[in-house]
């Protein structure tokens, strides 16, 4: 992804609300079933709440029953980065915005076919631009 965005912590804190900063910049997680998009059925493009980069299309969204928005694939493969996350004494794959490095959530191998991937994303890391 071109046009990488780099800001200081002070700049991110001035731009984001407290929950967005905690999740997106400090790798936190919002409570299940609490985010605005976990049960959202509106059509559109989910963008990064930090930088506006397009991340996920509502057409790839599905109800995983987990309480977080879940997607089968990113809008564009280069829009997200994957990184090993060994925090909390477990091995997971973290998903980051390729443009600004925001923590979005994690990807798991328990999603629907054909490839079985489930991108489990924090609502607070997203901004839906409706069609």
What key attributes describe this structure?
131 residues; mainly beta; Metal Binding Protein, Guanine Nucleotide Exchange Factor, Chain A; 6-stranded antiparallel β-sheet; 3-stranded antiparallel β-sheet; 2 helices; 9 strands; 11% helix
Describe what you observe in this structure.
This protein has 131 residues and is mainly beta. Helices cover 11% and strands 31% of the residues. The protein has a single domain, classed as Peptide methionine sulfoxide reductase (Metal Binding Protein, Guanine Nucleotide Exchange Factor, Chain A). The strands form 2 sheets. Strands 3-4-8-7-6-5 form a 6-stranded antiparallel β-sheet. It has a 3-stranded antiparallel β-sheet with strand order 2-1-9, with no helix packed on it. Strand 1 (44-48) and strand 2 form a beta hairpin. The chain starts with 8 loop residues before the first helix and ends with a strand. The mean pLDDT is 95.
């Amino acid at each position: 992804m071109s046009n990488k965005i780099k800001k200081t912590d002070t700049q991110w804190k001035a731009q984001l609300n407290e929950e967005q900063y905690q999740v997106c910049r400090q790798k936190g997680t919002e409570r299940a079933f609490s985010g605005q998009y976990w049960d959202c059925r509106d059509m559109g493009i989910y963008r990064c709440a930090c930088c506006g980069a397009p991340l996920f299309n509502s057409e790839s969204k599905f109800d995983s029953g987990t309480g977080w928005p879940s997607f089968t694939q990113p809008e564009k493969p280069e829009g997200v980065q994957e990184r090993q996350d060994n925090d909390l004494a477990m091995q997971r794959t973290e998903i980051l915005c390729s443009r600004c490095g925001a923590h979005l959530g994690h990807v798991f191998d328990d999603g629907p076919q054909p490839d079985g991937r489930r991108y489990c994303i924090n609502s607070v890391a997203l901004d839906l631009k409706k069609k």
